[in-house]
Amino acid sequence: MKPSKLLFYLGLVLIVLGAFMATAIPWTFLDSANPGSSMAWSVCVALTLGCGLIAHLIGRRGGAGDGSSWRDLSDSSGTEITRREAMLIVCMSWVTCILFSALPLLADGMVDGVVDALFEATSGITTTGSTVLTDIESSSRASLWWRSMIQWLGGMGIIVLFIAILPQAGSGGRRLFESEAPGPTKDQLRPRIRETGLTLWKIYSSMTVLLCVILALEGMGLFDAACHAMTTIATAGFSTRSESIGAFNSPLIEMTIALFMVLAGVNFGLYYAVRSRRDFGALKDRELGAYICILLGATLVITLGLLERSQGDFLEALRYALFQVAATVSTTGYSTDDFNLYPNHCRMLFLLLMFVGAMGGSTGGGFKVSRLLIILSTSFQEVRHGLHPRAVFSTRLGSRLIESRVVATVTAMFVIAVVGLCLGTFALTAMGLGFETALSATITALFNGGPALNELGPAGNFSSVPAAGKLLLSGLMLIGRLEFYTVLALLLPEFWRHR
What we know:
Strand content: under 5%
Oligomer: single chain
Structural class: mainly alpha
Number of helices: 20
Radius of gyration: 22 Å
Helix content: 55-70%
Strand order of the largest sheet: 1-2
Distance between the termini: 10 Å
Largest sheet: 2 strands, antiparallel
Number of strands: 2
């Protein structure tokens, strides 16, 4: 891949990032406790925009240096983006955005060191929601706004946003989209990929605005409402309060956020089908039914497990159970209670829910319900094959036939996930973390889940994790957000061999 092509796209992504970073500057003038932060934020915005503009111009000039115009970089008649190039562009775009997103957090004093800034930025932009902050309320409103904003940008995807608002990706945008987007599957995409990206962001933005208005009407301040709306729809989990949603002590706010967390965990391809094609039959999706069953079943189990703790008050137990299950299944990571105090079987169920996660094509993390269904269906067919060795069985998801290539990809991803969990847990235990803590931290990082168990749970934070552990978890967050293959492919020697 020509370096000029990479710089061309990285520059555009940084320009988009810098434009959104600038939205934090007005908050610096409203924050009397940090009067000098406006200069720090202005410098960070200027640096991001400046680096983006320089990289874009270098890439543009490099594209014209071989006799072709700069437009050929993104035009199918010139050098269309290959799958390999798309993977590299997406990975480098995310790494670059993490680095530049960390700058204002460090410059504004929200975090103390570079490692903490990288961890917080990575956790934000990958919508994981784990934090190293011990006193969130002491942070400036500009930093809290940006901390929520990067989660909102990462929820639907930086590259998808880039495709939606800029035409430069051209026909190569489809490969970029497929390498990053949590949106609909290939058969749900329109021929014009920019139109698809724009529609997804319209749905995503509309849900965010709607939730913000509802939360404001329910008594949450406008700033808090905007920040929590962004991090809820992104299923991300950063809050403006150290006690998360529990700080508001409002059943109405809790149920509203729980509802939108569940909605954000639904495949956006279904919303896309209903909005663009008026295809209400898409709501009969098998994965959606399984997703709802998991939510209801887990809520019932947790509610029964909390009855003793709530002294037999079923409604109180249901209140806490419903919110925590919604936050865990959608991998949002909010909390209204410390689930470390729950019975052991409830804590184990939370880890399993975090592993499974939300629906494929949603902003949620996890292995995804659709992949779990494919694994279970394939396993069942193999058992049947043992009874009828000459019979031919196929894997189905509802009425839809799953191709053997997709089954192999999902199975391989499951194996990679298990291996990643084992290696991550081993590494963290070698750094001094307890087994349960290390396992839960690896799960929450690899599947972008939020808080872990014990000292890393809702009542704690990740500040006690060694620096090497924070860097390891940051890497796992990125691998999990880009769903393994896009990042791991870069580690293969053949990826870098010239063809």
